[in-house]
Amino acid sequence: MRSLLEPTRRSKTGPARPVSVRDLAEVLRVLDDDPVASCMIAARVQEFGLDARSGVGELWTRGGPGDSLCFSGANLVPLRGDRHALRAFADRAARWPRVCSSVVGRRELTLPLWDMLLPRWGPARELRADQPLLALGQLATVRADSGVRRVRPDEIDRYLTAAIAMFIEEVGVDPRTGDGGRGYRRRIKSLIESGRAWARFEDGVVVYKAEIGSLSRRTGQIQGVWVHPDYRGSGVGTAGTASVANAVVATGRTASLYVNDYNRVARRAYSRVGFRQIATFATVLVD
Fold this sequence. Notes:
It is an enzyme of class 2 (transferase). This protein is of the alpha+beta class.
């Protein structure tokens, strides 16, 4: 795979524009060239195509998807491009009030893009500049927790309590802010109904949880990993994540997740499961 920042002759002129629906095959090839890092976007494109009317965001390019590509939606995700393309993406994003909650993706693309947006969008709430992107293509190297299972729809209230606690702890804001939590509940409900929310319950209380937040044809990205404070340090997180990763691998996909570099406890647990770093992400929390 050539460098994501490699300059190309076509990408040096013109503004960023929405990708045409005619470019679907080329977009899919680009995403398939980097299947783990592009999982979040590949899952959307594979399900909804490139029609912006689907309401899940749109893809931008400057010179063609093979040269440059960026997703704009709830998150701004640069996928490919040289500095000229990143400047064009920043210019397009800055035309309107910022609506994304974060800028996230491979560090070598995300940080330069944010540097270009910063003078126009103002300071970020938080910058997480070093997030190892991990992948596991075979079954876990530790014993999985057989008590970790898919969450049932009738368990949403108990699961939601844990999900809210995780979100506040990880992101630093309450997901119920603004709409009383209706949007976040819909998101969790959708994950449960699609069989992508996993948990271990003890006496009706969630002691471990995780979701397969994005599921493309080649990768399942695990997110929202959380262990109840009373159970931390007992191996619950390691065994639970092994269970979720095994479920992804059993479908023929690669299991993936990314983690903050400073979270040494989580990184050791993921290493024991068998995850290995393949790249580095960065996340700019905008709101």
